[in-house]
Amino acid sequence: TAVVSKQLMDQKEFYDSHGKIAFGITLFQDFAAIIFLSLIPALSHPETTPELIRSLATTLGTVFAVLVVIYLGGRRVERTLMRFIGSLKSNEIFVLTTLLTIMGAAWISSLFHLPTMIGVFLAGMIIGETEFRHKVEDDMRPFHDIMIGIFFIVMGLTLKLPLALAHLPLIAGLLAGIVFIKLFLTTLIVSLYSKSFGNGLRVGLVLSNCDEFSLILVILGMKEKIIDPGFGNILLITFILSLMFSTLLILYNKSMTFFFLSLLGMSRERKEPVEETDELRDLSNHIILCGFGET
């Protein structure tokens, strides 16, 4: 999500049709990955099938309970708190309150032996429902860019070049398989949903990479001894290369889509003009008020 959203924003494609669909899919992928992260500890213990099912059901029930408690309980409290902090007109206190909310939600998740990312994800959802979401987004942007940089530095440190060279054919095959399978499935599903092959192809190109959570899943799987360390490192190298390769696909998604459409003999799809309604036609000398917070 971090790679896709940032690059689409830089290319001014985030609010286009394919950008909004791609971002929505990445959010759902993140939520699904968080559920998988919570299930990995339950899978790490060798148990019989009934015990494993019982353990997975207990974990899922705990996750659902934490989601309900943090989301429903924190939504009303957070809205009141943010309004009070906003009335103080202090940007420093506002940023500290936002960080405290995030750390508090992560701490609550840890109390139930769940990944802290569940709490952090929910904290973002709760803050996003307040009228201060755009201010929080602007204030958190420097932290966002720094954390992305740190994340990829850590991932780069895990990249073992001798191992990559020793298993180059396997890594190349895995990388090609991931890209083409995700490209095909995403293009097919989005094309059926949006009834536009060009739009589906652009979303497929944007989302043909691995998600950042896939790296965390593999690392946690190796830590819990579910994934063999040797094969796990191969997967990490493949996923990192996928993220690196995806920047080119996102950058040239428009030109590549036009190229494929021309090869297939299909014309470029143009945006339909917005119809002027009677309400808009009758407006004159009006004012469009844009802003944030109370007016």
Q: Helicity, in percent?
A: over 70%
How many beta-strand elements?
Answer: 0
Gyration radius (Cα, Å) is 22 Å
Number of H/I helices = 13
Beta-strand content bin: under 5%
Shape: globular
Q: What's the pLDDT, averaged over the residues?
A: 80
What kind of sheet is the major sheet? none
Strand/helix succession? HHHHHHHHHHHHH
Helix/sheet category: mainly alpha
Please report the distance between the alpha carbons of the first and last residues.
33 Å
Low-pLDDT sequence parts: none
Short synopsis of the structure:
The chain has 295 residues and is mainly α. The protein has helices at residues 2-10, 17-43, 49-87, 91-111, 116-128, 133-158, 161-166, 168-194, 197-206, 212-223, 229-251, 253-263, 278-281.
Which tags fit this structure?
77% helix; globular; 295 residues; mainly alpha
Structural features, described:
By secondary structure, the chain is mainly α. Helix content is 77%, strand content 0%. The protein is built from 13 helices and no strands. Helix 2 (17-43) packs parallel to helix 10 and helix 4 crosses helix 5 (116-128). The longest helix is centred in the N-terminal third of the chain and has 39 residues, at 49-87. The chain is globular and about 70 Å long. The mean pLDDT is 80.
Layout of strands and helices, then pairs:
Elements: H1 2-10, H2 17-43, H3 49-87, H4 91-111, H5 116-128, H6 133-158, H7 161-166, H8 168-194, H9 197-206, H10 212-223, H11 229-251, H12 253-263, H13 278-281
